[in-house]
Amino acid sequence: MADYGHELEFGSFLTPGSGDPEGVVDLAVLSEEVGLDLVTFQDHPYNPGLLDNWTLMTWVAARTEGIRIASNVTSVPLRNPAVLARAATSLDLLSGGRLSLGVGAGAFWDAISAMGVPPLTPGQRITALSEAIDIIRGIWDADERGPLRIAGEFHSVSGAKRGPAPAHDIPLWLGAYKPRMLRLVGAKGDGWLPSLSYLGSPTVTESNALIDREAERVGRDPREIRRLLNVSGSFGPSTGQLQGPPDQWVEELLPFVLDEGFSTFILGSDDPRALSVFGREVAPALREAVEAERRTAGTATGHRVRPAAALAARRPGIDYEAVPDSLADRAVEPGDRAYGSVRSTYLWPGAPGLVLRPSATAQVAEAVRYARAQSVPLSVRSGGHGISSRATNDGGIVIGLGSLDGVTLLDRERRLVRVGAGARWGRVAAQLAPHGLAISSGDSGGVGVGGLAAAGGIGFLARSYGLTIDHVRAAEVVLADGRTVVADAEHEPDLFWAVRGAGANMGVITSLDVEATELGDVVLAVLTHDASDLAGFLSAWGQVVEASPRELTPFLTVVRQGGRMIGQTYAMWADDEPNGAVAALEPLLDVAPLLQQQAHLVPYSGVVTEGRNAHRGEGGYRMRSALVDHLDERVTTTVAGMFESGDTGYFQIRSVGGAVNDVPADATAYAHRTQNFALSAMLRGAPGGHGDTAWDALGATGLYLSFETHDHDAALPRVYPPATLDRLRRVKAAYDPDNVFGANFPVLPG
């Protein structure tokens, strides 16, 4: 194979001299400024004239923004492979996925042995490198259950813990020249990284053939392996190969792409002018020349090549080859290394057949058109907490909106903010805090905007501000037919009504315009009570909350801890006059024996913080929801009885009422505007058992769909009252008649 169709990349290969540490860092910064894609450094830990490779790469990562960083190549005999894997992961995470890892079997063995490594024969060195590659990849495979065990001749691990996973699939490039090393590239490498000046026998063509034959022998596609080349030369009068003006470089490098399959050229030079000419003149001209030749030859480019093992993991019913070009590079399949980080939500394990990750509204539209043409389930995910279990699936397609995370203040006077559906509420709070603004948004900063704002949005500001949806002024929505519309009070008014409470049934919300509230610091109080008399505690707590000023929004969590019932209240006071919090909070202190209390004056962004929880689906809890007007005897005795019987060990109350109930019931698809409390509990036992029977006896007048995990058909009438459901079905018929978005609560077209 001549041209493998890889996108061209260009880099620098800098000398990490210890005599001028800042000089090499400045050259790395210059490499980024002149448009190079990567900057690389040699690794010779035995040479006191050179900086340590890993320390230098970390420093350069902190000094740069987008350029990728690579070792060229790491001396594996002097780097414990398990520790090397963790070092690589750490730098990749800290740099935002900018690390590539070149590895080699060691070139200067007298110096290596002088550092305390027993000498190895050439064959043993290759065996050791092969074992090291397996260990590195095994450590990176954080999705694999169980510890890593590899019993090698030279490198072994016995029960090593896996992870953490890198920020992206770190490619492993092998420096190789002789047949056995070249075959290792074909069997296990992501790239071949030789230096042009060292290539001789076998020739470049022969080397590529060796790599390709070995790749095919082990079931790999040779196109999986990128071909990189370290080159050197100078710019000036023409005196020899790569010794001349930029157009000569382009002419001489072009055959290395078209005839030999190289797609990455790394210039070994510490000359700032040479780096500048290479990045600003040679790179764009060679890209243009290659593109022209590829168009003429019809060379396939752009599509990611997946290994045979990944292809074998594909699920039926999905046309993987038809994934739109704009989505293909970021799409994740079951066999991909990134699959473990995207398959599940925070609480629910999933096994989708394909995860699409659009980065713009137009790509969301493409994803919808593609997904509806497949014969598998479709789920849409914003943040990924996904308590209700509907943001992932088994064997279907997930459209993940995490890249649509913009937060823009459109109009400070009107307090109008545009937030992307993939943003998380902690980020929104942090972005609005400098402007003295806030949007009520649940109780966790890791929750995504789209899911919460489509369902309702019961947050710490609920009683003073209302639900999140009550302040949505417009929504950009991708419809089932792939069209994108903006729904507001004047445009698509029926859709605008429906998305505020049933948005996931109508389309994919990509952004929302929300009217924020003026908010300075808030008082957050945390009160811990002995709730041994649980029914009495809940009754007293409910009466105090209903009598409280609407500036106070308390949430309560009840758990059994050390054999004792504990009630923990988080109460937020949202008012310009924080001293009023004392009078509002005092009645809560006396509802039961107080075990602990604290209160802090903090910004709202200090409560709803920017934390990102790993989405590993480790919970899978069965949750039930209920909305009630009061914590009356029926409610309190039922909940107490469920703890006594063991039907639940976790119960929560979010207070609503106040501003939530100022909104007319028919103003939004969320129609529950009389209740004062939203209840939720984790139930034990199988669905339909004693716990469900008890919960159904609460006498709930509604439920909050985001906290209901099972039997959505039965729960539907409690989510939407009859008049609301009838209207929703009419809107559904107009905007999604084929029920493309049917994974949410089953609102069928009417």
What would you say this structure looks like, in words?
Helices cover 33% and strands 21% of the residues. By secondary structure, the protein is α/β, with parallel strands linked by helices. The strands form 6 sheets. Strands 1-2-3-4-7-8-9-10 form an 8-stranded parallel barrel, surrounded by 5 helices. A 7-stranded antiparallel β-sheet has the order 24-21-23-22-26-27-25. Strand 8, helix 7 and strand 9 form a beta-alpha-beta unit. Helix 6 (179-188) crosses helix 7, helix 8 packs across helix 9 (272-297) and helix 15 (449-455) packs across helix 17. The protein is elongated. It starts with 8 loop residues before the first strand and ends in a 15-residue tail after the last helix. The model has no long low-confidence stretch (mean pLDDT 94).
List the helices and strands and how they pair.
Blueprint lengths: L8 E6 L6 H13 L4 E4 L11 H11 L4 E8 L5 H15 L3 E6 L4 H6 L7 H19 L7 E4 L4 E5 L11 E3 L4 H10 L2 E2 L11 H14 L8 E6 L14 H13 L5 E5 L3 H26 L10 H5 L12 H4 L10 H4 L11 E3 L4 H12 L5 E4 L15 E4 L6 E5 L4 E5 L4 H8 L4 E2 L10 H7 L6 H4 L6 E7 L5 E5 L4 H14 L1 E8 L1 E2 L2 E10 L3 H14 L4 E10 L2 E10 L6 H10 L4 E10 L18 E7 L4 H13 L2 E8 L21 E7 L6 H7 L15 H8 L2 H14 L15
Parallel strand pairs: 1-2, 1-10, 2-3, 3-4, 4-7, 7-8, 8-9, 9-10, 11-13, 12-13
Antiparallel strand pairs: 5-6, 14-15, 15-19, 16-20, 17-18, 17-19, 21-23, 21-24, 22-23, 22-26, 25-27, 26-27
